[in-house]
Design brief:
Elements: E1 7-9, H1 11-43, H2 55-77, H3 80-83, H4 88-101, H5 108-134, E2 139-141, H6 145-152, H7 155-176, H8 183-213, H9 221-247, H10 250-272, H11 281-302, E3 313-316, E4 325-328, E5 334-335, E6 341-342, H12 371-374
Antiparallel strand pairs: 1-2, 3-4, 5-6
């Protein structure tokens, strides 16, 4: 099959890539919930086993690997502009799992008042994902090594990379030298690195898939260059994202990071792979509308009231999605007084105080004993 510059009529490819991205994000969210379940189940018992010795934790780890693999392969079949925004599916699934396991008894009126915006966010994410998938780029280029090099040395890509490097250096100067720990500056650093990562992830994934199909691509130097850039940029942005979570509210970091990372990922795909070159104005406008709706939906979901504690995000190095993302750890988990655990809120609605997590207490110093105490009986005051 001739891949030189050929653009395949890729409705089937887009469908495969979209389904893989959705499946991968859902599976990763489930895996995080399963691993959280394992941690707290172990903490609520008197066993002193390591979490990696439990079958539940390893089940979650296997789900994580399968989900990340599906996300990684999806970049070989669908454009960046479609796959990158679908990371909202992970936020949506994590929040839904939080409601499923949330043990909170509220009247319907109070529940709707407290979580109405969250369900509105669900609707917006689903509707926005439908729009961006339906009106996203409809052409897909097979990324052989020659095509990747041709894109890389083109003047639009070189100009884009130059502007990105200058912007990154300026932001890094203010962050490191001027101690400007503003959320926007840190997440812009993450997003700029993320745009490089998604470009390299798509190239590496595409060349691996072509190699599996029978067209060897791994012996070209461009594959090694892309692979090294992918790993290095992902590791550095994971560090910046971790710093953002330490300095700022995690829910705000989650929403702003998704917006910035998705914007720069789509922009990188449009410049590097020319994904919108064959699209008309109507399709582009509808795609942008779908992306904006997704942004608003993610913002509403992640800004759930802290009192509910449904969304408790954490940083994971999501190599397959190109950028580190913030996933939901699941709802706050608290062991019950009875020795079992409640996978839900901090407050026990049954009115029973939750049992504290087991801790190792130091042996108290021994004091003088009475003759009665030495025989194992407490001293009794006699009249």
């Amino acid at each position: 099959m001739d891949y030189n510059g050929a653009e395949i009529g890729s409705y089937t490819d887009n469908l495969i890539g979209t389904l893989l991205a959705i499946f991968g994000n859902v599976l990763v969210s489930i895996s995080l919930t399963v691993q959280k379940y394992s941690h707290v189940k172990l903490a609520g018992t008197k066993e002193h086993r390591s979490f990696y010795r439990t079958k539940t934790w390893w089940s979650g780890f296997i789900f994580t690997c399968l989900g990340e693999l599906a996300n990684f392969v999806s970049y070989a079949f669908a454009p960046l502009a479609i796959v990158a925004p679908l990371n909202a599916v992970s936020v949506l699934t994590s929040s839904i799992l939080g409601f499923i396991f949330l043990r909170e008894r509220l009247k319907p009126k109070d529940f709707a008042k407290q979580y109405g915006l969250v369900f509105l966010g669900y609707i917006l994410v689903i509707g926005g994902a439908y729009l961006l998938v339906s009106f996203g780029p409809n052409s897909h280029e097979k990324l052989i090594a020659a095509n990747i090099v041709k894109h890389l040395v083109g003047w639009p890509v070189l100009l884009y990379l130059l502007l990105e490097i200058i912007t990154f250096c300026l932001l890094l100067y203010f962050y490191k030298r001027r101690k400007a720990n503003y959320l926007v500056i840190i997440l812009l650093l993450v997003a700029l690195l993320g745009s490089v990562t998604v470009l390299t992830v798509k190239a590496v994934s595409g060349m691996l898939v072509l190699t599996i199909e029978g067209t060897m691509q791994l012996n070209y130097p461009i594959f090694s260059v892309m692979f090294v850039c992918m790993v290095a940029s992902a590791i550095f942005q994971a560090g910046f994202l971790s710093q953002a979570c330490k300095l700022h509210d995690s829910s705000l970091v989650a929403s702003v990071n998704y917006i910035f990372s998705t914007f720069f990922a789509v922009l990188a795909g449009a410049v590097f792979y020319l994904e919108f070159s064959n699209e008309d104005i109507l399709h582009i406008c509808m795609f942008l509308l779908g992306s904006a709706v997704c942004f608003l939906g993610v913002f509403l979901i992640t800004k759930t009231k802290k009192k509910a504690r449904i969304f408790e995000p954490c940083v994971t190095l999501n190599m397959s999605n190109g950028v580190p993302t913030i996933h939901d750890k699941g709802p706050v988990i608290q062991p019950d007084y009875s020795g079992s655990f409640s996978y839900g809120t901090l407050v026990n609605n049954n009115g029973v105080a939750p049992a504290p997590l087991p801790v190792h207490l130091e042996t108290p110093p021994l004091g003088p004993r009475t003759s009665d105490a030495s025989q194992g009986h407490p001293a009794i005051k006699r009249d």
